[in-house]
Structures are given as C-alpha cells and as structure tokens.
Design a protein that fits this description.
- This protein has strands spanning about 5, 10, 25-30, 35-40, 55, 60.
- It has about 60 residues and is mainly β.
- The strands form 3 sheets. The protein has a two-stranded antiparallel ribbon with strand order 1-2. Strands 3-4 form a two-stranded antiparallel ribbon.
- A hairpin with a 2-residue loop joins strand 1 and strand 2 (about 10).
- The chain is globular, with a radius of gyration of 11 Å.
C-alpha cells in the first residue's frame, strides 16, 4: 500500500487511519492496486498537525 509520499520521513498512509466506513476523503494521486486510497474522515478522530499535502486547496489533515 506504500505511496512513497512521505512527511517528515513517515509514509503518508501511516499518518492517517484507513477509511473503514466508506465516507472518508480520497487522496488524489495515491493508489493501491489501482484503487484510490481513502482515509478516515476527521469526524472519527482528532486533527493532527498539517502535513503540507493539499487536496482541493485544503491540507489533508483537515479532512
């Protein structure tokens, strides 16, 4: 599932919880087996520090 995108040496997909329910945001340009990666919506957890990866102009940590 590695995207090879890193933030401070940590793989992007290790920064956020995976989407279990199916309503989380898609990380554009991040795929696994041809499917876009989805992460848990912020409403199911706590916001982490900004990661400087923008999705539609918003830091991914805010989604």
């Amino acid at each position: 599932m590695a995207t090879l995108i890193k933030h401070q040496g940590v793989l992007f997909e290790d920064l956020f919880d995976p989407d279990i329910i199916g309503d989380g945001p898609i990380a554009p340009g991040c795929f696994h087996n041809g499917q876009p990666l989805r992460f848990a919506h912020i409403q199911y957890g706590a916001k982490r520090a900004d990661v400087n990866f923008r999705i539609n102009g918003v830091d991914a940590s805010r989604l």
